[in-house]
Amino acid sequence: MIAEDDKLSELVSAIEEVSSAPADFWQVTAIIESLGYTDRVIQQEFGFSDALSLGKYVYENHNFSLAAKVIKPKKKFWRNLLKEMQIFIEQFSQSFVFALPLLLILLLESLDVDNQSPLLPPELASLITLATMASLTISGGFVQMISRRGEFYLKLGEPIQARRVCLPIIYLGTATSIIVGLLGLWFGFYQGQFADEYLILAAVYYLVLSLLWMLLAAVGIQLRWCTPIIMLGLSGLFVLLRVWINLDALTAQIISMFATLLVVICLVGFGFGKDKKASQTTATKVPLPRLSALVYLLAPYFFYGIAYFSFIFGDRIVAGWAVNPASGLVFAIHADYQQAMDLALINFLLLVPFVEYLSYRFISYWFKNSKNLNVTKLAKFYRQLSYRYWLTVGLTVIFFSLCVTITFLLLKPESWSLQTNLQSLFGCLGYLFFVIGLLNSILLFSLNQAAMVVKSIIPALVLNLTLGYILANLINPDCAVIGLVTAAILFMLRSTHKVSQVMKQPDYIYYLAGY
Question: How many Cα neighbours within 13 Å face the side chain of 365?
């Protein structure tokens, strides 16, 4: 009997090497037969009449999933761990690198490096701030369209189609940025509140940044690891010019941006040029979808991209326009408010890549388990999804709390007043609520529910700008942060409700997503 048990254990081990979790006893029987066991051998060694009876016995009396965990080799565990770390680094780095420039600027300020050079005139400083926010807002919609549509074709193995779609979007985005820049110049010349050379410099700064954001999106879909490397290079060049060569912050930024723009243009030209040569050798061209279809598909992403950055900078915009006319400025943000919100923005930028990784794991779990879903398992699967969702939200809050603690200890100046500290904490709270809404948006986008995202963020953006503008003008410009917090709560609640709705019907939503 002991010999038969040993032989049976050896057989089970051999079966698990082929499949650690067989679907049914038929699969176990097929594996036994593929291992060369005939009915005669089975009768002699195990005492069963045939392979089918042995397969039923092994399947019903052996816990394959438990055994797979027990005999799983350590190499497989470390391989899975390394793979998970690679996924985390890839997901995290794609967004984290965009926090580096602002993080470096705040770090240099905390080290008193800025005292080595004269400060910018208030008029130019306000124009540069406005140009930066405008570049991100105007180009945000085009960046979303480039990323979504280009990645769609590249994952289908159609780089030529990606080029044919992305280049017109880049041209359209560039033309739009130029028109907006010219209108801004005309308005500035008409008002006569700023020196002409300041207006021209701000317009060039805005155009360079707008083009840079769109081209980085095009590079990111072709060469995924190029974007982090480029942003690291940009940050390193800025530090070199700022610390070692001792240039002022604006000059160092402009030189770094122009150098980065030239590199990105070359990379985009190389990538799309390679695809163009391939397209010339192709006998037939696959027609693109009609323009009306592209507009229908990409419109939600375009409006989301604009609303996303408008929401982030909405409080600063209304606070800047609420400046006292006696100061002689049309737009200006108080230095204390700017620093407080910069520190809050750093925590937001650190949290975004972490949330993108968590959303990736959540959607991967959803799609993986939806493949074997049936009606009897729907209720249980909904509870599992709800548990994982709230666990993801909890991890987001914990990580954000750690980030706020670390940044306040390392980057917050000791000279800040109680009011500035409260403003920064309110800004952090608003960005936390906004990030939870962003988590919901990523999940809804992954499920092909883009319209739900737009319906959630647009009302919140309107509330942000309206309430912030009223409070900034009636009470104090610093009260614009209240509009940010209130609107972020609205966005979080509406998007959470949408996610809860789709989780209640996971099979139908999985079908609509087209997977």
Answer: 17
The model's pLDDT over 126-145, given as tens digits with 9 standing for 90+, comes to 788 788 888 888 888 898 88
Q: Which two tokens stand for residue 29?
A: 């029987």
Position 228 scores a pLDDT of 72
**Confidence at residue 493, expressed as pLDDT on a 0 to 100 scale:** 96
Which DSSP string corresponds to 250-306?
HHHHHHHHHHHHHHHHHHHHHHHHHHHHHHHT-SSPPPPPPHHHHHHHHHHHHHHHH
Predicted structure pTM score: 0.74
Neighbouring CB atoms inside 10 A of 249's CB total 20
The number of helices, as runs of H, and strands, as runs of E, in the chain is 19, 0
Distance CA 379, CA 485 (A): 35
Find out whether 367 and 381 touch, Cβ atoms under 8 Å. no
Whole-number percent of the chain with pLDDT over 90 = 17
Report how far apart, in Å, the C-alpha atoms of 74 and of each of 12, 19, 80, 81 are.
20, 18, 10, 11
The residues, any chain, with a CB within 8 Å of residue 486's CB and separated by 6 or more, are 463, 464, 467
Structural tokens at position 500: 């809860």
CA 299 to chain centre: 19
Q: What is d(CA 417, CA 111) in angstroms, rounded to the nearest whole number? A: 19
Which secondary structure element, helix H or strand E, spans residue 514, and what is its range?
A: none
Look at residue 62 and give its three-state secondary structure. coil
The residues, any chain, with a CB within 8 Å of residue 410's CB and separated by 6 or more, are: 110
Apex 480 CA angle, 475 and 484, nearest 5: 145
Q: Write the burial class of residue 280 (CB in 10 Å: 0-12 exposed, 13-18 middle, 19+ buried).
A: exposed
C-alpha–C-alpha distance, residues 354 and 442, integer Å:
12
Give the integer Cα–Cα distance in Å for 138 and 148. Answer: 17
Angle (deg, nearest 10), helices 64-71 and 2-18: 80
pLDDT digits (tens, 9 = 90+) for 166-217: 888 889 999 999 999 999 888 888 777 778 888 888 899 889 888 988 888 8
Three-state SS letters, 214-264: HHHHHHHHHCCCHHHHHHHHHHHHHHHHHHHCCCCHHHHHHHHHHHHHHHH
Q: Give the mean pLDDT of 97-102.
A: 56
**Residue 464, pLDDT above cutoff 80:** yes
Q: What is the DSSP string of 142-195?
A: HHHHHHHHHHHHHHTT-HHHHHHHHHHHHHHHHHHHHHHHHHHHHHHHHH--S-
pLDDT band at 69 (very low <50, low <70, confident <90, very high): very low
User: Where exactly are the structural domains of the chain?
Assistant: 2-72, 98-288, 324-515
